[in-house]
Design goal:
The structure holds two protein chains of two kinds. Chain A has four helices and seven strands, in the order H-H-E-E-H-E-H-E-E-E-E. Chain A is α/β, with parallel strands linked by helices. Chain A folds into two domains: about 80 residues, 2-Layer Sandwich (GMP Synthetase, Chain A, domain 3), CATH 3.30.300.130; about 60 residues, no CATH class. Chain A has a four-stranded mixed β-sheet with strand order 4-7-6-5. A three-stranded mixed β-sheet of chain A has the order 1-2-3. Chain A is elongated, with a radius of gyration of 17 Å. Chain B has one domain: Ferritin, core subunit, four-helix bundle (Ferritin, Up-down Bundle), CATH 1.20.1260.10. Classes of the chains: A alpha/beta, B mainly alpha. Chains A and B meet through loops of A and helix 2 and helix 6 of B.
Chain lengths: ~150, ~250
């Protein structure tokens, strides 16, 4: 088939949800590092969030099946670890959606800015590690609800 | 020994350390004293096993015999492993597990910092990726060592006992050999002895805050990183870790 413009493919991939945090897309997460046509093959460069993230293989499958669904049959995935993924690559849209979903977005200060539920600022860390490698467990002392914080790396 | 043969050995040492410690830490899954710690241990294990895929993946590439990271992890026997004896020791109690984690994290954070400027770009890339994760590991393990060391009389006594038991396994980290000399000469990895000062500074600061005393004496158990003689514990660990691939060769899902 004819080579589809990569701008359009970025839009398609922006519809593919992260398997662990389905409110944000793979593009929001910043793990799609490049799209390049090589002949009739589309090379998608992907970087892992954490080395051992168990979602990696699901993400790879989701990319391939989404692109196949849009008629791109020949998809080549390239894993890239340098430069290493950083939470600076999360999109603004993604940060907003994380908070709406109840996950405090990463902050350079190293901890959440406010409770994603009641917006309180009286917070405490429960554990440096949360339900996935990319998150830590925090609690709001105002509303007493525990919440996930997306770690800043 | 050619440069690539030495590099292969160096990469096995990196990958086997993270693989064996990752497996040990994963043994806590479902058994930790509180849920948050259970999750933290599982996440740490996951990071270590992820880093293993990079180190052993590159080892297989450098070796050039078509072996994958999985082949190296699941189809070698104890005498071919190149991890430090420290990481294959049984977990003991929670305090001992965290003390071992701290001693390893401290070493790894110093080592990875140097490897980020390795003359081999592939090594530098893995180190840059892993060092972000290890920065979290060492922060947590140091905090826990301080919390338990400077905690109750019971937790203090257990942490001191853990340190007394584990300290003789620290010396092996810094004992160089021909592989290390070849790596240092090529600018790929530092001479391990050159890491000792930074390691000591970090460890002494944290252990003193934890009100724990470093045992006297220079004796070091060795034989893991050069494969000369592992402890009897490694074979038992491998029996658990490898049985599926041994019983059902090529099984996958």
């Amino acid at each position: 088939m004819a080579q589809v413009a990569t701008d359009r493919i970025w839009d398609w991939l922006d519809q593919v949800p992260d398997p662990e945090i389905p409110v944000i897309s793979l593009v929001d997460l910043g793990i799609i590092r490049g799209l390049e046509w090589r002949g009739d093959a589309l090379q998608v460069t992907v970087t892992p969030t954490y080395s051992g993230c168990p979602a990696t293989s699901v993400i790879n499958l989701d990319i391939i099946s989404a692109l196949n669904g849009h008629g791109i049959e020949n998809v080549v995935l390239k894993q890239q670890i340098s430069p290493p993924w950083t939470t600076d690559w999360l999109s603004e849209k993604g940060r907003g959606k994380l908070e709406e979903y109840g996950i405090a977005p990463p902050q350079a200060a190293g901890g959440p800015d406010r409770c994603p539920r009641c917006k309180g600022r009286n917070l405490e860390r429960l554990s440096q590690f949360g339900s996935t490698p990319c998150k830590a467990a925090w609690r709001c002392r105002d509303c007493l609800e525990p919440f996930d914080y997306f770690k800043c790396i | 020994m050619t440069r690539d043969e030495a590099l292969f050995q160096f990469l096995l040492r990196m990958g086997d350390n993270t693989l064996i410690l990752g497996h040990r830490v994963s043994e806590w899954c479902g058994h930790a004293p509180v849920l948050e710690e259970d999750i933290a241990l599982a996440n740490t294990a996951l990071d270590l096993i992820g880093q293993t895929q990079f180190w052993l993946g590159l080892a297989g590439e450098v070796e050039g015999q078509g072996r994958s990271a999985d082949d190296l992890a699941f189809l070698r026997d104890a005498w071919d492993f190149r991890n430090l004896l420290l990481v294959e020791l049984p977990n003991g109690d929670f305090g001992q597990t965290l003390m071992r984690q701290f001693l390893f994290d401290a070493f790894q954070s110093v080592l990875l910092g140097r490897l980020m400027t390795s003359s081999d770009a592939r090594v530098a890339e893995i180190a840059a990726k892993a060092s972000k994760e290890v920065a979290y590991h060492v922060e947590r393990s140091a905090d826990t060592v301080v919390g338990l060391g400077d905690g109750t009389a019971e937790s203090h006594a257990r942490m001191q006992a853990a340190l007394n038991y584990l300290w003789p396994y620290v010396g092996e980290m810094f004992l160089g050999d021909a592989v290390d000399a070849a790596m240092a000469e090529a600018g790929i990895a530092p001479d391990p002895a050159s890491l000792r000062a930074d390691f000591n500074a970090l460890v002494e600061r944290v252990l003193s805050e934890a009100t724990l005393g470093i045992p006297k004496g220079e004796f070091a158990h060795k034989g893991g990183r050069n494969g000369y003689m592992h402890t009897e514990h490694l074979g038992h660990l491998l029996a658990t870790m490898q049985w599926l691939q041994r019983a059902y060769p090529g099984a996958s899902w």
